[in-house]
Structure formats: C-alpha cells, structure tokens
Design a protein that fits this description.
The protein is of the alpha+beta class. The chain has 4 helices and 11 strands; from the N terminus they run βββαβββαββαβββα. Helix content is about 25%, strand content about 35%. A 6-stranded antiparallel sheet has the order 1-2-8-11-10-9, covered by helices on one side. A hairpin with a 2-residue loop joins β9 and β10. α3 packs across α4. About 35% of the residues are buried. The model has no long low-confidence stretch (mean pLDDT about 95).
C-alpha cells in the first residue's frame, strides 16, 4: 500500500529570485543519468549513443547538446546525461557496456543569468568562469559546495547536490543581494 503523504518535491523552493542585474532560477531537467563505461567499452558505448541520440560522448571537460538531451563530461570515465529521456531505456540501449544510474533526484540544476552573472560567479567560485567556452563544463566549488558549472546564454548552469541545494541557493542569493546593493551605492 502506498503512503498518501509521499509526493515528489522540487529540489529547492522560492525560485526564481532576482537582485539587481542577476537572476537565479530552477532549471531541473526531466531526467539525469550517470553513464560510466566499463573497462574497454568506451567505443561500444559511443556507438550505442550514436544509434540512440545521433552523437557519442563528449571529450573531457566538454558538453554536447542534442535535440532533447545534453551529455556532460563529469569525471574521468564518467558522463552525465540530462534532458527528456528514460534512464531505463538508456541502460537497455547500452546493453551491459556501461553502468547507468538514475541521478534525477541527486542534483538541483540552477540557471544564474544576467549582466552581473560573471561578477556573482567571481564571488561564488574560485574558477575563472569567464575563460569557459560555450561547450565547456567544470567541476568546481560553488558557494562552498562541490558542484558543476557550464556556460549558458548570458550566464551559467550550476549543478549542486540536492541534499545541500537549499543552503546553496541561500548562499547564491546572498551574493546576488550584496552585489546588487554594492551596485546601487555606485
């Protein structure tokens, strides 16, 4: 018997937030999955993904966006897929050549955008985000949490662990608010 008190929740509440020239919003994809090819199976995994999504795995530190799915390098020998797909179907398509783990509830995916997004990121991470190209992805500290960052149009996509996302959003919002106050003072 199912528990009627259980229901799906968003990873964080109170978004979107805007302060000055920076906006923070939740951009949670329908699904997230980790793809970790087994030893010696990189080429069969790439071939299976080409059949499924018409593209193989991106190179180290890169992303690849397809019609409904984005593939991101996330660690040596490991990639993340995000978008509109079924992780079980992905696991079946890879047919024992890779470990596929549904990570849909493991991350909070945020968009930080606006004219002051670079200034906000400079206060949130030691990474020089202005050096990132459009298809780059980096694992870095963000708001004192281990996270993932990739550039998007006029800003950045930030991945935080869902377990600490509420705290991370509060830290990001604090930086946004202080930055807006400093800009208002001239």
């Amino acid at each position: 018997m199912t528990d009627p008190d259980l229901f799906a929740r968003a990873p964080v509440y109170g978004l979107p937030k805007s302060f000055g020239a920076v906006d923070l919003s939740l951009a949670q994809p329908a699904a997230i999955a980790t793809i970790a090819p087994f030893k010696g199976q990189g080429i069969p995994v790439a071939d299976a993904l080409k059949k499924l999504w018409k593209a193989g795995l991106p190179k180290t530190g890169k992303t690849r966006t397809l019609k409904s799915v984005t593939l991101l390098w996330s660690a040596p020998g490991q990639w993340l897929a995000k978008g509109d797909f079924d992780p079980a179907t992905l696991a079946t398509a890879l047919n024992g050549t890779a470990a596929v783990t549904d990570q849909s509830d493991a991350f909070a995916v945020l968009h930080l955008s606006g004219n002051d997004a670079n200034a906000a990121m400079a206060r949130l991470t030691p990474l020089d985000v202005e050096t990132l190209a459009t298809t780059d992805v980096a694992r870095t500290e963000i708001a004192r949490l281990a996270g993932i960052v990739t550039p998007i149009n006029n800003g950045y996509e930030i991945w935080l662990p869902r377990s600490a996302a509420h705290w991370g959003v509060a830290e990001i919002a604090g930086v946004m608010e202080r930055l807006a106050a400093q800009r208002a003072l001239g």
